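Notes from the 1:1 (GR / supervisor)

We went over the backlog. Supervisor wanted to see one worked example end to end before approving the batch request, so GR pasted a single chain during the call. The sequence is below; no edits were made to it. Supervisor asked that the structure be written out right there so they could see what the output format looks like.
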Amino acid sequence: MIQSLPMEVHTRWMNRCLEIAQKAAGHTAPNPMVGAVIVDQGLVVGEGFHPGAGQPHAEVFALRQAGDKAKGATLYVNLEPCNHTGRTPPCTQALIRAGVGRVVVGMIDPDPRVAGTGVQTLKAAGIDVIVGVEEAACQALNQAFVQRIIHQRPLGILKYAMTLDGKIATTTGHSHWVTGPQARAKVHQLRAICDAVVVGGNTVRYDNPHLTTHGHSAHNPLRVVLSRRLQLPLEANLWLTTTAPTLVLTTPQADSERSKTLTASGVEVIPLPTLTPATTTQYLYDRGCAQVLWECGGTLAALAIQDGVIDKVWAFVAPKLVGGTQAPGPVGDLNIATMTSAKQLSDVTWHALGDDLLIEGYLRAVPQ
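Structure output shown during the call:
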C-alpha cells in the first residue's frame, strides 16, 4: 500500500508542475500547458513539461528522466494524463508500464477523448489516483485550452489603455504613451502568452505598432490586421516579418495590387467571405489559436464585444486627463440605452503598476 501523505505535500508538488508548465507559455496551442513531476521518498527523480503540439507530453519527459526510479514513485501532473492515441501515444499506458505507484492530478481533461477515462484506466491498473489538487490554479493556467474544447473558439481578451477621463488618445489622435513603462511591460508579457494579437486598419495607419513582446519572451504572437479593402500604408512596422509573422485578413473586394505588395514583403494575406470579429475568431480557431488578444480601437472593440468573442478585459487606467469631446474612447457604440443594461465584468481584480492601474475582469451576460 502506497504511503499516505499530507495534502500540503501534494500541493507543493502540484505547484511545481504549474511552474514548469508555464515554461512553454505561448507555444503549446492548441494543446494545453502541462508540467509533470515524479517524486520518490520526498525527492524529485524526474520532471518535464509539454513543449508544443506534436511533441511528447510532460509525463513522457518526466519518465525519461526518472528511468527505473519511477517504479513505485508518485507522479504529479496538472492535467489528467491522456488516454488516446493522437499525435503521441497515450500517457496512461506509459505510466502503467513504468510502474508508478500513485498519480496526483490537478484537473480532469475536458477533451471528450479523455474526460475522466485517463483516471479510470490508471485506477483499473491498480494505481492510486488523487484528483483535484490545486484545481482552481490548474483551471486558471489552461483557461484558454478549456475555452477551445468547451466553446470551440479561442479565449478572447480585449486590452486597452485609457486616461482617467476615458480617452485612448487626444483629439489629434496622439496616443504615445497613455501609460508608463511598467504597464507597457505588462502588455508585452501578456502578448507572450497569446497566440495572436488583432488590430484594425486604423491602428496600423495611426499608431504603426510593432505588437511584439519587445524582448520579454522569445515568443511573439501572430500579428493580425483586419482590413476589408487593404487601404493600408505601404510601409509599417507590421510588414517587417523577420521578427514576428503578420497576417492580414481581408475580403474578396480588397485591392489586388496592395495584396501582392504585402505578400511580397512576407505578409500573409487571406480573404474571407465576410470580415467580422466572429469570422476572424473562427478562422483563428481553425488555425489552432487558443488565446487571442484584441488591441484594437474602439469601433472594432465594440464589434468584437457584440459578436461575443471577448471573454476577458484588461483595462489599463493612467492618472491623466486629456479632455476633448472628440477624443476617442476604448469602446465604441454598444447600443446600450440604460445603465442597467451595461456590460458587467465579474471576478474583477486590480493591480497597481507604477502610477497606473490594471483592471482585469470577465464579461458576463446581464441577468434577465
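Supervisor's comment: The mean pLDDT is 94.
Batch request approved.
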